[in-house]
Amino acid sequence: YKQGRIKSLVMAAYARVERYAVAKADAVICTGPGLAEQARAMGPGKPVHHIFDIPSSLAEPSPQASADWRRRWTAPGQDVLALYVGSFAAYQGIDLLFGAIPPACAATPNLRFVIVGGTEAEIAERREALRARGVEDRVVFAGKIPPDELPSALAAADILLSPRLDGTNTPLKILDYLKAGRAIAATDRPANRLILNHDNAMLAPPTPEGFGEAVAALARDPTRRDVLAAKGRRIIDEEMNFEEFKRRLGRCYDQILGTATP
């Protein structure tokens, strides 16, 4: 009860700070439509601009660097690589991901997982759990990778994973995944659905069994992976790119400075 009471007080204080910040702002920038609606509700009449995130690095994948990453993680021509990048926080769906690994490996003998992120303690805990399930040798823990090296690391994989469970804003990793030009397997949840759909990604039920089955299906279907990868990359090339980001940000500045044209 005491912890719940403290959490309620902290969240109430946080909400007051949010309302104050919106009330005093000349304009509010939100990275997702859900946040934009919240901002409009907090400050009726306040200019609110939806300006999407951009990938964590503008660098394009290097074919040579991608080949080097792949050699670190697998033998030539032997494995299909499914890669996750992110923290080990519960809302990321990390328990679902590790629960999906054993059934996916059982269904697809040449499938290997690469996990980017996590602390040493978190990795040790997960490695022990995988050992107990008999699949420790099918998972590579890559630790943390610098942002400008990440595009090449992502492009070394065949499938990129977003097991997100909670939240209403697009995971930043999705933009990195789309930019890498690789097929995406994602849970069919609101955060992933803001950009992804059945046309550009493999959307799966948010259960270990459902997610594992989706990853295994993609691992067995290189043609499907190529189709999804091409459609995903088109989103970056045509919609959510740095040029469009600058255009939206410029429109916000024009409005604040009073220089916007009709």
Notes on the structure:
By secondary structure, the protein is of the alpha/beta class. It has 11 helices and 8 strands. The protein starts with a helix and ends in a 5-residue tail after the last helix. The chain is 52% helix and 13% strand. The protein has helices spanning 2-24, 33-42, 63-73, 94-107, 120-133, 150-155, 172-180, 190-193, 208-219, 222-238, 242-257, and strands at 28-30, 48-50, 80-85, 111-116, 139-143, 159-162, 183-187, 202-204. The mean pLDDT is 92. The radius of gyration is 20 Å and the shape is globular.
What's this entry about, in short?
This protein is of the alpha/beta class and 262 residues long.
Layout of SSEs?
Elements: H1 2-24, E1 28-30, H2 33-42, E2 48-50, H3 63-73, E3 80-85, H4 94-107, E4 111-116, H5 120-133, E5 139-143, H6 150-155, E6 159-162, H7 172-180, E7 183-187, H8 190-193, E8 202-204, H9 208-219, H10 222-238, H11 242-257
Parallel strand pairs: 1-2, 3-4, 3-6, 4-5, 6-7, 7-8
Radius of gyration: 20 Å
Biggest beta-sheet profile: 6 strands, parallel
Strand arrangement, largest sheet? 5-4-3-6-7-8
> Which parts are unreliable, with pLDDT below 50 for 5 consecutive residues or more?
none
Helix content: 40-55%
Shape by Cα distribution: globular
Number of H- or I-type helical stretches: 11
Mean pLDDT: 92
Q: List SSEs in N-to-C order.
A: HEHEHEHEHEHEHEHEHHH
Structural class label: alpha/beta
Tally of DSSP β-strands: 8
- What is the terminal-to-terminal distance? 55 Å
Strand fraction equals: 5-15%
Write a concise keyword list for the protein shown above.
262 residues; alpha/beta; six-stranded parallel beta sheet; two-stranded parallel sheet; 11 helices; 8 strands; 52% helix; globular
